Amino acid sequence: MPGGTKSNRSRRYTEEFERDAIALVHSSGKTVAGVARELGVSAGGLRKRARRDRADRGQGASGEPTTAEREELRRLRKLTRERAEAIGVPRKAAVFFREGERSVSAVYAFVEAEKTTRNVALLCRSVPYRPAACP
To answer: What is the pTM of this model?
Structure first.
């Protein structure tokens, strides 16, 4: 931007403003860049919103996900991460205990170290006896 500084923070617009901006793109016959310039918004951001709107109305490019599909993907990816962690906890505990008998203090230290990054309840189900660190 000439003479100014560009902020790294993105602006949030109301749903009404976004709907009106997209409607203006569709009805005005102007380019997305032209409408964006008139409204003082990013052309890339407006183009992205207009593309999502077309997909939501079933007029998007083939394979373009709708908002509902994007939200479902986000939910499923989160669930996959959580499940992967749930699988990783018993696996890591199995490796820990396979190495031989462990003292109570070693088990306690293991649980304490892991509970900062893992679900402790899952971890505690994997240990042969319940140390005090387990809920």
So the answer is: 0.49
Name the strand (E) or helix (H) holding 92.
Answer: helix 67-98
Burial (CB < 10 A; 0-12, 13-18, 19+), residue 35, is buried
**Rounded Cα distance, 101 and 92, in Å:** 15
> How many domains, the chain?
2
Distance CA 94, CA 47 (A): 51
In a domain, 52, yes or no: yes
Q: Domain residues for 56? A: 15-64
Q: Convert the pLDDT of each residue in 79-99 to its tens digit.
A: 888 887 777 766 777 777 666
Q: Tokens standing for 57? A: 């109305």
